[in-house]
Amino acid sequence: MELAHAEERRAELTQRLDAIAERLERASFASPADEEEARVLRARAERLVRRRDGLGPVNPLAEAECASSTRG
Asked: Is the pLDDT reported for residue 72 higher than 70?
């Protein structure tokens, strides 16, 4: 009985892993088509990093602090 249950669980996990692998394959990104596209992507990434850095430090507890202040 335990062996049958283990085999059933194994088959279920195999299906789940296959589904995850398929989603990961669909989510993969293609390499830039040429050097111009790579340059554009690098420039965009640099702009996004500058924008992120311009936001300044983020308080990781802000959500919890806000929630506690509205309850109180």
From this structure: no
Question: Rounded to an integer, what distance in angstroms lies between the CA atom of residue 58 and that of residue 66?
Answer: 14
DSSP 3-state of 60: coil
In the structure encoding, which two tokens stand for residue 23, read together?
């989603």
- Amino acid found at 61: L
Q: Which amino acid is at 7?
A: E
**What pTM does this model have?**
0.44
- Cβ atoms of 43 and 35 within 8 Å: the answer is no
**In the block, which residue shows the tokens 């830039």?**
32
CB 32, CB 41: distance < 8 Å: yes
